[in-house]
Predict the structure of 3-methyl-2-oxobutanoate hydroxymethyltransferase.
Amino acid sequence: VKRVRTRHFHNAKQQGIKITGLTSYDMLTAAIFDKAGIDFLLVGDSAGNNVLGYDTTVPVTLDDLIPLTRGVASAVKRAFVVADMPFGSYETSADEALHTAFRFMKETGAHAVKLEGGVRSAEQIRRIVSAGIPVMAHIGFTPQSEHQLGGHVIQGRGESGVEALLADAKAVEAAGAFAVVLEMVPNAAAKRVTEEVSIPTISVGAGPHCDGQLLVWTDWAGLTTGRIPKFVKQYANLAQVLGDAATTWAADVASGAYPAPEHSYDDD
Ligand code: KIV
Ligand code: NA
């Protein structure tokens, strides 16, 4: 199999072929999604909510994400692996951002990094790209700044919202990002950005006009038991499947049905 490269993202937009991405935080799901042909896997700082037990992505550190990213990168044969730069690991300066990107590239096997912010992060994107590391940008709703944005608020609404979103998209394009995630943006605004930038737009709740779609895998697979955003469609109910398996197994242990002879070792 041929690995997905940044040129695949570019070609897909040119040819109108939709790009698919899921988050992944471990080698087992990464291998499954890779085999299914998902184009890219994002080791998101959404690991904070889905693996590490935090309420937001704010407390997640680089040291938290490095081993998770290594696990994902170790498992893929085709998919493009994107490492998410956590809050506090790139905002201070372009130097800090490049240092963080180097750690991901040297220590994990990721193929690219992602960071939040448009105009405000353009200098960081430019510096990382100039060192030979592909950058996926992320604009619209940016979870690391949810306290400033006032919660999970849709971005790019109204004429000034659309203009601000367009300015962010153009800033990351000019800085050299190979793709841009649009999170929680109305359809019309996402369509306009998609038409006005040359790099592919990846929707997380930004509608059907984007060049690709990305979802948090635990939401998409029905493993998350908390609140699920409106834009998620559940394609499985893993919480039910695993819950039923655990209940059945516990009953089998209680009754003695497990372990049966075929699950035990003989003396000789
Ligand atoms: O961390 C994450 O999962 C993300 C996507 C939802 C865009 O950043
Ligand atoms: Na993220």
User: Anything to note?
Assistant: The first helix runs from residue 6 to 15. The pocket of 3-methyl-2-oxobutanoic acid (ligand 1) is lined by residues 23, 42, 44-46, 84, 138, 181, 183, 204, 214, 216 (CB under 6 Å).
